[in-house]
Amino acid sequence: MRLRNITGSREMVAENDYVVHEPEQYKGKWNMVFDNDREIHVEIGMGKGKFLTQLALQNPNINYIGIEKYSSVLLRALEKRKEIELSNLYFIRYDAEYLNDIFGKDDITRIYLNFSDPWPKDRHARRRLTSREFLKRYDQCLKKDGEVIFKTDNRVLFDFSLEESKLAGWELKEITFDLHHSEYLEGNVMTEYEEKFVAKGNPICKLIEYRK
Ligand code: SAM
Prior knowledge:
The protein has seven helices and seven strands, in the order ααβαβαββαβαβαβ. The chain has helices at residues 9-15, 31-34, 50-58, 71-81, 132-141, 155-167, 192-200, and strands at 40-44, 63-68, 89-93, 108-114, 142-152, 170-176, 205-211. The protein has a seven-stranded mixed sheet with strand order 3-2-1-4-5-7-6, sandwiched between helices. Bound molecules: S-adenosylmethionine.
């Protein structure tokens, strides 16, 4: 999602109380941000943040962090965020390539990747958020039983992700090529992209991956 650049969005994000500024300082001590030791679930590439906001409302005992690369996109999430009273949801403007600068060993229990950019050219494969390069980053900050949950309507990206997972030695479960007509639909929270693709009739693929 690359919204047009909104003038001043970087400054507005930099001043916002729902954004964790200089997140590197909380590596290994995210409990300081939330003021508790509850588990932390992260969405990478959260876009406008609907999915994570809904989860934070549903699960007050889980802490949520949304990571988004672009200020102009994050700004949309912040507009909605200020209307809701929540103490378990923060956002970070950051490129997930540097995830290990902000999260240390065992900091995260779950990572959500929803409708991640496909980077269709082979030479860009390592930028895909489900590539083995990213799995290595996740391995360094996920708890022992932590998991990555990935949804997409892009079958090529999904097949790539299944392959990368196996090559990286991760385990897979709850794989479906059509989530909305599967046994795994119950409790599903839709993202903005998911709503759009489901309305068009695109099947949604989903997997959960974890280390042995
Ligand atoms: N997850 C949302 C949804 O399902 O509606 C948005 C999906 S959109 C296709 C992908 C989002 O990921 C964009 O907002 C993009 O800016 C963000 N993104 C892509 N690469 C990223 C990265 N390396 N770090 C953080 N965010 C990233």
